């Protein structure tokens, strides 16, 4: 398979809840490029986020184009229709050139025995690669074949509208309960080839927890073994099944997973493979930190955001229950936060694990609390614009210093 539009080796998914930080985000990639590391920016925003904020996918394209023009970015860049399915894809088709096909919900849905038999007949001879027996192939096909077929249906809808080769395809299976083993990943990739889906990135669910906005929870050594095995599986699948030569792993909820960054960096260096790192909502938290550091009315607004998030924690957390772990007893009372200085608020929220003030429970609550700021509307957005220097400095430093340098450089 081939794709005219090709994603570079290193790419960074950059979420921006309120479409204010495009230039600050791109500045992180520019800083990396100046040091000789080419990281392709990919602006992403899910349908759920658009619904909560009240925005449109066309706004993500406008933000990306404006940032590229303002900074004179000469390399490629993309706009991701993040975690879409057949029910949500239509509004993303025109402005997007990168489509994350989320088929995790179809995992485990039974498909016909005839489909399994046909797949095993055509692709079942894995020659014992990665420990695959016919029995394991059948088991994996029974679990994942329907999900791959669903990816094919979404892909063909986008292809019908945009044309073959006019967009980048990612297949996402990460939002599910159980991780995919490397041998299961090989079956999935073979099935994607059979389905005619030219995936350039694949987002499996890895072992361990990838909670929003905080560090990885799990066995780092096991993750490293699994990540390296997945890279080997991809190389094998590209060679054998004709998938795009640049096919690479995608790490979702990749922001702030500092304990596994060295493992990913070692794997990339040893193998020459690429990776797509999605950093999701970390930019929104840097906006809050920038407001806090600006002091005055901006700090007061940041305090108000926390108070409202604290008051409506259950409702805000419910859609993200599978990807957050908040101990409510560790959340400070709003009255305490209202007495904090700029440094105290920023210290509690900024993900600096060596800082005694850092509070991962507060950080996770605010991570899912962007709906509070969305309801504030122009009052919030206007304050962010007034504090551009403070906010942009934090956004750029977070993406470059804590993410790009640790993974790509």
Q: Uncertain segments of ≥5 residues (pLDDT<50)?
A: none
* Number of helical regions: 17
Tell me the helix content: 40-55%
Globular, elongated, flat, extended or rod-shaped: what is the shape?
globular
Q: How confident overall, as mean pLDDT?
A: 95
Which H/E pattern describes the elements? EHEHHEEHHEHEHEHEHHHHHHHHH
Q: What's the CATH class of the largest domain, please?
A: Alpha Beta
From the alpha carbons, calculate the radius of gyration and give it in angstroms.
21 Å
SS-derived structural category: alpha/beta
Structure description:
By secondary structure, the protein is of the alpha/beta class. It folds into 2 domains: 10-281, Aldolase class I (TIM Barrel), CATH 3.20.20.70; 284-400, no CATH class. Helix content is 52%, strand content 10%. The chain has helices at residues 22-34, 47-53, 57-71, 113-123, 134-162, 182-195, 220-241, 261-271, 282-294, 296-311, 313-317, 334-337, 342-349, 360-367, 370-376, 378-386, 388-407; strands at residues 10-15, 40-46, 78-84, 98-102, 168-172, 201-203, 248-251, 275-278. An 8-stranded parallel beta barrel has the order 1-2-3-4-5-6-7-8, surrounded by 6 helices. Strand 5, helix 6 (182-195) and strand 6 (201-203) form a beta-alpha-beta unit. Helix 9 (282-294) packs across helix 10 (296-311) and helix 9 (282-294) crosses helix 17 (388-407). The chain starts with 9 loop residues before the first strand and ends with a helix. The model has no long low-confidence stretch (mean pLDDT 95).
């Amino acid at each position: 398979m081939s794709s005219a539009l090709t994603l570079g080796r290193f790419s960074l998914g950059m979420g921006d809840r309120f479409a204010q930080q495009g230039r600050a985000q791109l500045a992180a990639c520019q800083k990396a490029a100046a040091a000789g590391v080419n990281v392709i920016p990919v602006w992403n925003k899910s349908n759920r986020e658009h619904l909560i904020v009240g925005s449109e996918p066309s706004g993500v394209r406008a933000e990306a184009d404006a940032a590229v023009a303002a900074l004179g970015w000469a390399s490629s860049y993309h706009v991701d229709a993040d975690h879409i399915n057949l029910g949500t894809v239509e509004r993303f088709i025109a402005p997007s050139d990168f489509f994350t096909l989320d088929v995790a919900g179809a995992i485990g849905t039974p498909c016909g025995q005839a489909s399994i038999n046909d797949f095993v007949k055509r692709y079942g001879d894995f020659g014992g690669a990665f420990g695959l027996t016919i029995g394991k192939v059948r088991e994996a096909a029974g679990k994942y074949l329907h999900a791959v077929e669903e990816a094919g249906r979404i892909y063909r809808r986008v292809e019908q509208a945009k044309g073959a080769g006019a967009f980048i395809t990612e297949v996402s299976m990460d939002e599910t309960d159980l991780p995919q083993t490397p041998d299961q990943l090989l079956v999935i990739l073979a099935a994607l080839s059979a389905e005619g889906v030219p995936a350039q990135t694949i987002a499996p669910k890895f072992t361990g927890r990838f909670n929003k906005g905080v560090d990885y929870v799990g066995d780092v050594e096991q993750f490293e073994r699994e990540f390296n095995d997945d890279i080997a599986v991809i190389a094998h699948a590209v060679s054998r099944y004709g998938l795009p030569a640049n096919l690479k792993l995608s790490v979702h909820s990749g922001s702030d997973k500092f304990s596994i960054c060295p493992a990913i960096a070692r794997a990339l260096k040893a193998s020459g493979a690429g990776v797509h790192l999605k950093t999701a909502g970390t930019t929104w938290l840097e906006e809050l930190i920038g407001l806090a550091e600006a002091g005055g009315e901006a700090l007061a607004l940041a305090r108000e955001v926390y108070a409202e998030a604290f008051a409506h924690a259950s409702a805000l957390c419910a859609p993200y229950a599978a990807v957050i772990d908040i101990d409510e007893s560790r959340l400070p009372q709003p009255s305490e936060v209202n007495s904090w200085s700029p440094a105290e608020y920023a210290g509690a929220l900024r993900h600096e694990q060596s800082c005694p003030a850092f509070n991962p429970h507060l950080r996770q609550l605010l991570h899912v609390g962007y709906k509070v700021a969305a309801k504030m509307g122009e009052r919030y957005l206007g304050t962010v614009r007034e504090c551009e220097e403070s906010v942009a400095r934090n956004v750029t430093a977070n993406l470059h210093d804590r993410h790009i340098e640790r993974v790509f450089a």
